[in-house]
Amino acid sequence: MKMQQVQKGFTLIELMIVIAIVGILAAIALPAYQDYTVRARMSEPMAKLSEAKATIAEFYSSQLESPDTLAEAGLLGEEDDIGTEIVQSMTLEVNSLAPVVSIFVHASVLPGESSDLAFQLSGVTRADGTITWKCRPGAGNAQATPMLTKWLPTSCRG
Known about the structure:
It is built from three helices and five strands; from the N terminus they run H-H-H-E-E-E-E-E. Helix content is 35%, strand content 22%.
């Protein structure tokens, strides 16, 4: 009587199927993870914009006019001195009494980007001394291109 031999280990086809499944999962997960890490890095620019928003709103409520510069609003340093590893610079423009604060993010933080990207807070001034803010992708210019919506913080989408 001949004993049947018990199979040990996996066959080549089973291993190839497992590798294919892992490859498909990685192809889906890596881009999603990259977008997640970029959105996480956008917390620093949002913190800087929140600081600018608060100081400009305070300036506007006391003076009933928008400041001409970030330094005049009470932020430390000039527009170009605000740079960090993630944030290149931040600027303030006043268009018909409505302040627009733009923040520029280094391209090195963003996968596949060759130029800096921008997003901004656009303010609408009210007669009662308050400002209503709206976050949006920045306007494209020589300094940067608009930030992709998928990388904007959740409060800036839509």
